[in-house]
Amino acid sequence: MEPVVSQELRRIGLNRVTEERSAVRFHGPLEAGYRACLWSRSSSRILLRLARFECPDAEALYEGVRAIDWREHLTLDTTFAIDFVGGSKTIRHNQFGARKVKDAIADQLRETLGARPDVDLKRPDIPIH
């Protein structure tokens, strides 16, 4: 599907479209992501990268996720869920990685807002990959 999706994204005017294994990446302002969500018929999902950081171990994962300002994306009234894929010497299970991400988000919001939003594994308002 990668060639079909990349052609479709180029046709709707997105820039720097590159095919990867099981993914197609593009760059642009938030408006480009909205355009992809609105007009792409072949994509199964569109993801917005919030940050990029080195992640050699579980502690670096926790600190990198915690450094994101989650107040820009979550409120105390929104639910979220983590879909984690990846691994390292200290992150050997996807559930462990997902828990570290969830803990980093919850800890940051509890510290800044005094509480944290709920997790909803079935129908979250904000899915995080």
Computed structural class: alpha+beta
The average pLDDT value, as a whole number, equals 93
Unreliable stretches (pLDDT < 50, length at least 5) are none
Strand content: 5-15%
The largest beta-sheet arranges its strands as 1-2
- Helical percentage: 25-40%
Q: Which overall shape is indicated by the principal axes computed on the Cα atoms?
A: globular
Listing every helix as H and every strand as E from the N terminus to the C terminus, the arrangement reads HEEHHEHE
Cα end-to-end separation: 20 Å
In short:
Helix content is 38%, strand content 13%. By secondary structure, it is an alpha+beta fold. Helix 3 packs parallel to helix 4 (94-113).
Describe the structure in your own words.
- This protein is α+β, with helices and mostly antiparallel strands and 129 residues long.
- It contains four helices and four strands.
- It has helices at 2-11, 30-39, 58-66, 94-113, and strands spanning 15-20, 23-27, 80-82, 126-128.
- Strands 1-2 form a two-stranded antiparallel ribbon.
- A hairpin with a 2-residue loop joins strand 1 (15-20) and strand 2.
- The longest helix is centred in the last third of the chain and has 20 residues, at 94-113.
- The protein is globular, with a radius of gyration of 16 Å.
- The two termini are 20 Å apart.
